[in-house]
Write a structure and sequence with these properties.
The structure is a homotetramer. Chain A is of the alpha/beta class and about 375 residues long. Chain A folds into 2 domains: about 1-180 and about 350-365, 3-Layer(aba) Sandwich (Rossmann fold); about 185-345, Dihydrodipicolinate Reductase, domain 2 (2-Layer Sandwich). Chain A is built from 15 helices and 15 strands. In chain A, the strands form 3 sheets. In chain A, strands 10-11-9-12-15-14-13 form a 7-stranded mixed β-sheet. The first copy, chain A, has a 6-stranded parallel β-sheet with strand order 2-1-5-6-8-7, sandwiched between helices. In chain A, strands 3-4 form a two-stranded antiparallel sheet. In chain A, helix 3 (about 35-45) packs across helix 15 and helix 9 (about 165-175) crosses helix 15.
Chain lengths: ~375, ~375, ~375, ~375
Amino acid sequence: MANLEMESDVETTTKPAGEYEARAPRTAVIGVSGYAGGELARLLLQHPRLTGALPCFLGRSGDSGTTTYLEELHPQFGVPGTVQSHKIHPFDWDFLTDSGIEFLFMATPHEQSREWAPEALARGIRVIDLSGAWRLKEAGNHAVYKLTDADPALAAKLQAEAVYGCPELHRAEIRSARLVANPGCYPTSVILALAPLVQAGLLDLSHEIICDSKSGVSGAGKAATAKTHFMYAADNFSAYNVFGHRHTGELFEQLHLAPDQIQFTPHLLPIPRGILSTIYTRLKAPMTAEAITKVMHDFYKNSPMVRLHPTPHLPQIQHIVRTNHCDVGFALAKDSRRLILVSCLDNLLKGAAGQAVQNLNVMCGWTEQEGLL
Amino acid sequence: MANLEMESDVETTTKPAGEYEARAPRTAVIGVSGYAGGELARLLLQHPRLTGALPCFLGRSGDSGTTTYLEELHPQFGVPGTVQSHKIHPFDWDFLTDSGIEFLFMATPHEQSREWAPEALARGIRVIDLSGAWRLKEAGNHAVYKLTDADPALAAKLQAEAVYGCPELHRAEIRSARLVANPGCYPTSVILALAPLVQAGLLDLSHEIICDSKSGVSGAGKAATAKTHFMYAADNFSAYNVFGHRHTGELFEQLHLAPDQIQFTPHLLPIPRGILSTIYTRLKAPMTAEAITKVMHDFYKNSPMVRLHPTPHLPQIQHIVRTNHCDVGFALAKDSRRLILVSCLDNLLKGAAGQAVQNLNVMCGWTEQEGLL
Amino acid sequence: MANLEMESDVETTTKPAGEYEARAPRTAVIGVSGYAGGELARLLLQHPRLTGALPCFLGRSGDSGTTTYLEELHPQFGVPGTVQSHKIHPFDWDFLTDSGIEFLFMATPHEQSREWAPEALARGIRVIDLSGAWRLKEAGNHAVYKLTDADPALAAKLQAEAVYGCPELHRAEIRSARLVANPGCYPTSVILALAPLVQAGLLDLSHEIICDSKSGVSGAGKAATAKTHFMYAADNFSAYNVFGHRHTGELFEQLHLAPDQIQFTPHLLPIPRGILSTIYTRLKAPMTAEAITKVMHDFYKNSPMVRLHPTPHLPQIQHIVRTNHCDVGFALAKDSRRLILVSCLDNLLKGAAGQAVQNLNVMCGWTEQEGLL
Amino acid sequence: MANLEMESDVETTTKPAGEYEARAPRTAVIGVSGYAGGELARLLLQHPRLTGALPCFLGRSGDSGTTTYLEELHPQFGVPGTVQSHKIHPFDWDFLTDSGIEFLFMATPHEQSREWAPEALARGIRVIDLSGAWRLKEAGNHAVYKLTDADPALAAKLQAEAVYGCPELHRAEIRSARLVANPGCYPTSVILALAPLVQAGLLDLSHEIICDSKSGVSGAGKAATAKTHFMYAADNFSAYNVFGHRHTGELFEQLHLAPDQIQFTPHLLPIPRGILSTIYTRLKAPMTAEAITKVMHDFYKNSPMVRLHPTPHLPQIQHIVRTNHCDVGFALAKDSRRLILVSCLDNLLKGAAGQAVQNLNVMCGWTEQEGLL
């Protein structure tokens, strides 16, 4: 993978990583009302490196008046109106600057991330964006989010600079990045399963890779819609956005695959959280299960968040829910050619908020799993 | 029960029941977009007495233009845009009259039922209303629905005339009724469990009757709200409207109990459909389980929709879901005084659409369970 | 499809279909304790053609003494110990013969079906077997069920005679069959989606067909095991029997595909019932959605149980649960080559008991959907 | 509450609490295969006070040979056969003694706890027993567990000595206890809601207290049975053990109530974990909501694990699942007399393993919530 090979050459213009050994960085989150935002707030509040400087929480818009508290939005933060309230400030650039914020998590719609990230960077704040706004390099793919930029030249420059926040693939670049584009939940599950084999050139790409992915309902967001109604989702199962899910571009770019080499179909599972991807591949040449295992283990030997299941064990959603792990396993057909990869993760953690904190850990030079176990 | 005793004196001014042996009545439903409306449409379409004159379906408002079909609203009616479409007409009084409608089901909000039922009756159409608009006789209770009437005198007259559509209690009156107020889902489960013992005067009412009821999510309606979101309802359980649910008045009136003699607390179950009520009572004098069983059996000997579970069996939601049964069982403490009744029904069937069709059957002089097994 | 083409030549040695217009056939079911057996009993008891001769129910073994009733086994049949009890007789060949049974449904383990079906046939009883015992023609596939035969020659002869009970593919043969092997639940969903395109030779089979199937928990049977425990299945999702599910052979045989042309992976959904299969194919030559629709419609124009969803609609499990439909839809990529088929059915109905009754309807010369809508 | 008042007089014969400030105690768990045992292992392994001396895990019987690992039993401990394995030793008294175990958690069936606790105490090991073996003082109640004792006199003596492990009621006694009987899950939810009002003598006990409790399926244990089958529990709801649940005696004893003053009915919720109890009471004299709130707050002002919800908020299962909190709220009728308490807890945490660790914290003189937030 080209990106990986170049890692050692990356010049860093940001503060030396060691700085955050001595003191806690000032962090803030914009947008904590959604599921990922809530999980992000929870992770940051309990992060052992941040006890000295609790994160700030900001709403998505400036029209405040009514200050709220995390407890009002999320039951996991405690009884509304009682102890340990965490205030949510109205959004305000000066507040961010005055508070000396160094790291800004944006759990905002992609339009807002696209608009606000440049301003944050201009103010010297490093950004970890959880939306899709900065994930895709290529213009063609970029169009899927229908983004409009006030300053297209600047946006293009930042787009080029942005680092795809998958630490298992881009650890060194993330360390010094100013703008980290946190990956989509589905792509994380697919990319982590495929990267070792694709990078090693072991797959016969004349046989298209098929990614059949299934996600829990939290992936559809907190908005009350016909499709998130309990009566629609419970006892049901369905495919959606077939041939048209906007996460697909991340697969092409991160795995360096052409559009006819991989396809991805999402489905809606009647469970609160968790993604399982079943990925159908074909090996170029026959391999043993041991050889495949070795490739996977070597690739992830320094990646504590990816757990490999030894054959014949395969990961299940119950193994990873409420953790930041991505579990990967595989089954090899008797022909030693057809290979099915199964990967699982929690869409709100390794698929969103957990990976964002993992990126913060990398950016601060901390142990990657800090605050995530 | 006073109402029951007077039944034989009721004079009927409506058509003789025998008429509908010879021909199918013309029926219509206003409001088929909700869950109860959908079930009602399904039951009427498969009703063996209505094969000769399929029901008409009308939307809740006149501003049409866009005609829809049952298939667009409810997956149980088939593939949208394909065969066997059942048209939903825009609402229109003349259409109802021109179609010769004799029976009108109103699966409408109570404000609309309150406004439209008088017009339907004036046009000679008998009404089975599924809302709460006409259920309560007393002004105090009536206030819970915050109803306003264009013609208060007429509304009061119709309110007095309206029959509470619980066939097990008011069969004779329903037979000749012009306006049937179909009972609430919760009250049906509580009333059918308690009526035999209350009417026989067997309960010690100085000990308040406690009704702890639990309902599936379809009871909260089809509107997508924070509380019907899968992420809120799934894996959760909660009490709501404690001391304030508007179904409570039906218990007072139908069981002739004072407000300090019975209380009712609803809860939200993480299941699509079904209600279970656990009802705590105390007997005036010690009784045997056999004696209690006999009272219950005698009361319901002509009521095929109520099924009594022999002790020690108790009904469960799985026993009644997707049926029009109300299952009732009981457990008697060793002191032969404390008695717990458990009743179950499907909130969309015996708690709504099924009971409405049961009322139609009674009004037409047919076997009560026709089209409901 | 060779089988289909030869249909008109099949000679029937059984009774003329017209016989069952005049009178109800005598039917029996062995094995009603499982989920499929329970659904089968329900369907037969409400079948309009069988009201004159209710089916007999038999247990799986002769050691009786304790007679049971359907109500004891399945909540849907009513309150245990009360009205409308349906007796389950101990298994006994003479009882079957003395009762004049003409059609025997076997909802038994495949070992038992393999052992008993020859005896039933010898006694002149036509058999519809719901197990896997008689589905596979080829010895290699046959081995998956590890069957041992007391009379291998007879078993081989009957195996050759047995008709795969998919009416949409083998209607004419089923009509006169003595031994119908009711298809597996998963294969029904896959075969019905693929048959029109495979038979028309439209698929590029150098690209393996990938069948990613997901089933509700009832597919795992009524036995209480670690994997059917609520705590295992709820909020979870997993792949199982990867590259090794014994239903795979049915796909090879019925679709006339080689083992490297199709693969099938089952998954366990946290829902009671329903199967959805996502099937990845590639067309030999570019086609329009309209052309594909036409092929499908032509193939199923006389098959009321298969419902085609017009693009862009895709079937979901909620559309078919508790029906005997198999719903099929598709999505075509912009390249007009990559084609995803989605099919859904209820594993206990079209995937088991409903299809068995559909086969009875065909064998008796009745309308195919009789008693199934 | 008599027990509480005497607390200050209790003489402690055990080691001074301060000892465990300096060093970690040696702990062990017998029985980690069940749900509560698994949660207990998880809590102990992540307990900040135990990092210096990880707990030992023992199986329930001596016939070992096959050593297992936590990972084999519980998916939350990681991938079977890979990193961070926690060994489960065969049960062996000498192993416990040789390891210098000071605190023994018993997550064993009550028969085994009854047999083994005396031996552990004789060896100088303090015991926290999660079963029902030592909870009830009175012989009549004691009979519900059908316990037989090898040495009845010793058992009676230990029964008298055993402390009911509800820290909110018996904190001081627990601090010095040798044998702590960890409370039942249902009783914890009921006792914590009622204790403040009962102890203050505010309830009119001539009106029986009604406790309508609902629990998730993990409360039924890990054994695969007909009632823990997904097909039974999902989409269902039922009452069970009406007038006969063995947890009832804990309510009588801990709240000092007579059997005709309180009744308790358990129900099975279709969710993995969580208990909600709806508790119907009547006040002796009218009170305001503020006055009730004050009584509750004063009672729990030093009890961080009980969270009071301000009216009109009521706790829900989603608020407490996966925490060690017991949340309590109430609704007061307009008559200022009828009072409904609602309490929620996680049956595996505050209802079992979490409370056991809370007891360890108290016994070691640590902050009560240590390792539990």
